[in-house]
Amino acid sequence: MKSFRIILFFLSAFCFFTAWAENVTISGKVVDSDDKPIEFGTVQIKNTSVGTNTNLEGVYSLSVAAKDTLDVVFSCIGYKTVNQRLIKPKGTVTLNVRLLTDSQILDEVQVEGFRSNINGMQSFDTDAFKLSPDVSGGSVESILATMPGVNSNNEMSSQYSVRGGTFDENSVYINGVEIYRPQLMKSGQQEGLSIINPDLVGNIKFSSGGFPARYADKMSSVLDIAYRDPQAFELKANASLMGGAFALGTNSGKFSMIHGIRFKKNNSLLSSLDTRGEYDPSYFDYQTNLTFKSSDKFSINFLGNIALNNYNFKPSDRETTFGTSENAKSFRVYFDGQEKDRFQTFVGALNLTYMKSKASSFSFGLAAFLTDELVSYDISGEYWLDQAGTGGDDAVGGELGVGKYMEHARNRLRASVIQAQLRGASRIKNNNITYGLSWQHESFRDRSKEWEWRDSAGYSLPTQPEGVHLIYNLSSRQDMQANRLAIFAEDAFYFETSKAYITLNAGVRLSYWDFNKEFLFSPRANVSISPLNNNRLTYRAALGLYYQSPFYKEYRHTVTDELGNGMVELNRNIKSPRSLHFILGVDFTFRALNRPFKLTGEAYYKALSRLISYEYDNLKVDYSGVNDSKGHIAGLDMKLFGQFVEGSDSWISFSLMNTSQTLGGVKTPLPSDQRYALSLFFTDYFPKFPKLKFSLRGIFSDGLTMTAPHVSRDINYFRAPAYKRVDIGFSYQLVGAPKDGVRPYNFWRHFKDISIALDVFNLLDIANVSGYYWVTDVNNIKYAVPNYLTRRQFNVRLSFEL
Fold first, then answer.
1. Which of 404, 401, 406 is closest to 473 using CA atoms?
2. Quick check: 219 and 577 in contact, CB under 8 A?
3. What is the value of pTM for the model shown?
4. Is the separation of the CB atoms in 570 and 476 below 8 Å?
5. Which residues, in sequence order, are CB contacts of 703 under 8 Å at separation 6+?
6. Cα–Cα distance measured from residue 289 to residue 222, given in angstroms and rounded to the nearest whole number
7. Residues of the chain whose pLDDT is less than 50?
8. Of 29, 250, 327, 425, which one's alpha carbon is 20 to 30 angstroms from that of 95?
């Protein structure tokens, strides 16, 4: 592992300080024959992917690597295309263009869009999350949480569940490499930064169900991220009260690279929690994406990531008031001890691509994921649970419970995942065939020991006459290795009939896991139909048999002796949970207020079998480690997307869901059951102050179902309060492209953008619940004390871009 870290570090450092390419900035204004600005015209550098669109004033600006000759192409529907050639351009070039009306008169122009949701995958605008006011600093997951069917009830975490699934049922890919998360994290305080660096993202695809066979065996969703190759020199940085980020990219023609560094230290945010003390978290992340194109046919890509997350905490005291106005309670704790956690993650991936022809390509990839995790704490406390007095001078409180406790943990996990895959793609007439073979080797070394002792009113719990016992005791000592093989083939077939344009994707995935000697057969298909007589409508349907191939946490089974001591065993008889997906959907595009809108609706049903039951404890998912239940999930997702304010995209999502699980012969809702959810992402600008922008992110969703510790939900469960949160942000552009497209020849011409922003997190100051701390008195009466999430916070950001 050490040699891998050293190689990755020096390779990234070498590439970071090499290749500084000169770039040219081209800006100007595009007008028509009457000198009126042309809105949303296309400005493209010929034979490259560099391009932009004119704004409402016809102004544009773009940067490109310097060359001897640059051809700039200006085009817009209804106008003649203009090509302008620049000879040996340098520095900043102003290029104003007039487009003449095309002499050919078009009776009717119909624009049909089939790429928004194709082959079961939906594409997203990468600019949306840059404006999102969220604790993570504009993360992709924060925008994802506003999509229908996606649930995230903890603002400090990037984890999410989709349509009733667990956090672990979602596949995440970066540049075609499946990414894994740390296994021992149990709270958002430990997590820090998302694995996805928003400054490096070039393309986002997401599916909440019905995804094609190329993606791995997960039951809920796929998030497919492609990092971008910069087309010219670029530099951007931002700093805030909670950390900062830096990104550098360049392109010399055959070689391009982009690097990103992020640092986060959110002491101020954590200080708003009920538990007070010395918070000392530090989160560091470095990522790089390197691409070398030796020719038009051959290219090499390297993806690297180093993540170092440390969470140190010395609690001092806590006071939590909960209950209702008629039955209010107060919980006070005085602590001693500390917690020291460390999560180190390393990712390296090398991919070679060969373009045999325009219709055929092959790729071979090698990837490695390494994680070294340590959770260590020794914390003791004395607590008082009181009945708070309410209702005036005659109200009298009373003591409900008093006691002491001590918690200890020394949990250490080292894991590695090595992947190799070979893929191919061929286009034969209207068929786009994709196929591949992959091998994966997994290795785990688990050394865990955690226990809890509790004393209530002078009695040790559990109370037993023969001595003092721990209320909870668990140990694990495991060394295991396993291999997985998978092969897939799928065909995306596009054809047109006299009545409709049809896209059909069908494929199959075969896999084998030598840990439990299990073979999986996963057929998947989805279809979209757009009637030719009404291209505003698109009908979609999907059907597939999906599996959740268990990862390490999911097949850890706890065996308890007569004294209550638990020992972890690995269940080699585990089977992959299975989900049969049925999906029907429709997209309707229309114009209102002379602006474009899109209404999407999707109904789904998932028949579940061979489930591994689980419970949530904050972000920690406690699995039973056995196939002990079955059930179903059904729901309806709706989304309205469009320009509620001219020139800015916004959306509102609404979801309904019903879940059922048969556990121990009793039907109960799943832990991730969320009966309703309403989310909103809204952006606006001020006409008199066009450089001032406003964004709002709001979530209102049903609370999850929970149980007391070590109690199965077939015995008892309850539902947590609803999650309600609104975050807002204001940003003002201090330096940017002027309206006339001519940059002043001074120091500020080097900056593409300088902006300052103010964020208000949890605007309404609502105390949302992440989980519960359970207090048990000597009469074995349990009290659920809520663990509240962060309260209202302010954040200031300063960013610039060259």
1. 406
2. yes
3. 0.83
4. no
5. 153, 719, 720, 721, 722, 723, 769
6. 21
7. 3-4, 6-21, 103-115, 390-396, 739-741
8. 250
